[in-house]
């Protein structure tokens, strides 16, 4: 932990955090000014979530030195070998990927029946999704490069596998719980939409700080059986 002065110094100096906040506010601006449906917004955040997983997959493959404390496969303590690294990377890819595959099916289903607002054909309305998604990709690419120099040289590979879930759960809970509430309030929900988007931005920023300042501290022990 660190004091208020250290926190202010860290926040003011973390360019990846400010890029993340900027990306979120650009999305909020476009959503409001272009009167996006909720489905359009959910597509953008789905792409952001996938992007987070993609760069974490690359991060696992790029580990030069790592520990396996607490990491078990079939009840056996894993050893810090290249085989463990490859298995961990592709296990994460499959597990994280399947979660987002089901999320994708949900979004495609909504794109057909318009549950969360007007129907949004994925191809027909791609202009709503493409630019902010590209902006989030650029943000997380920059964050990957920028924070790589700040991270400990030796990390726990099991902890690295868990980071993205810790990162995205608050973000998606805000969306999943907030949007149905907005729909139930009718026209009032349109007024509250910016509030939920700002809340999502806040949770996104907080989890970015938690991940890069508190969690990525080297050989944190994480038990994964």
Tell me what you see in this structure.
It holds the Pfam family DUF6498. The chain crosses the membrane at residues 12-32, 38-58, 86-108, 128-146, 158-179, 191-210. Keywords: Membrane, Transmembrane, Transmembrane helix. The chain has 225 residues and is mainly α. The protein has one domain (4-215). The chain contains seven helices and four strands; from the N terminus they run αααβββααβαα. The strands form two sheets. Strands 1-4 form a two-stranded parallel ribbon. A two-stranded antiparallel sheet has the order 2-3. Strand 2 (72-73) and strand 3 form a beta hairpin. Helix 3 (38-61) packs parallel to helix 5, helix 3 (38-61) packs antiparallel against helix 6 and helix 4 (82-113) packs parallel to helix 6 (157-184). The longest helix has 32 residues, at 82-113. The protein is globular, with a radius of gyration of 19 Å. It starts with a helix and ends in a 10-residue tail after the last helix. 29% of the residues are buried.
Would you summarize the structure shown here?
With 225 residues, this protein is mostly helical. The chain has helices at residues 4-13, 15-33, 38-61, 82-113, 126-148, 157-184, 187-215, and strands spanning 65-67, 72-73, 76-77, 154-156. It is globular and about 55 Å long.
